[in-house]
């Protein structure tokens, strides 16, 4: 229940600030996060790329694209782009990568939306819960974490 309230608060903060309504141009990082949050609650669909169903790389690709930035469509290609940084340096708009299978391959990714108690919060398309915001403080994500990449200078 607390997570649902937290997600709703994030949604209202993002939409209630009037960033787009005021006609001001957003900074690229803020825009990527704003557009990613438009997908909150969208169900997960492998290979999905729309508000009716989306996967993790589709979420990243669409959020960057709406901000006018080009990134690859798959986790395997995204992991080769940008600059690798430490998670302690992560800023909103950076991408976190995860290993969610027993193979060494990177299989999941999300966009940093902020921090809480020094750990990144990230938006991603969860296969079980759809598009949500999670924290690296959560045991599963902390263990699965692999790397952070910066796509926006």
Detailed description of the structure:
By secondary structure, this protein is α+β, with helices and mostly antiparallel strands. It has one domain (2-16, 28-150): endopeptidase domain like (from Nostoc punctiforme) (endopeptidase fold (from Nostoc punctiforme)). The chain is 30% helix and 26% strand. The strands form two sheets. Strands 3-8-4-5-6-7 form a six-stranded antiparallel beta sheet. A hairpin with a 2-residue loop joins strand 1 and strand 2. Helix 2 crosses helix 3. Mean pLDDT is 89; it is low at 12-22.
Task: Give the arrangement of secondary structure elements.
Layout lengths: L1 H15 L11 H10 L11 E2 L2 E2 L1 H11 L8 H4 L4 E3 L9 E4 L9 E9 L2 E8 L3 E6 L3 H6 E6 L3
Antiparallel strand pairs: 1-2, 3-8, 4-5, 4-8, 5-6, 6-7
Helix pairs in contact: 2-3
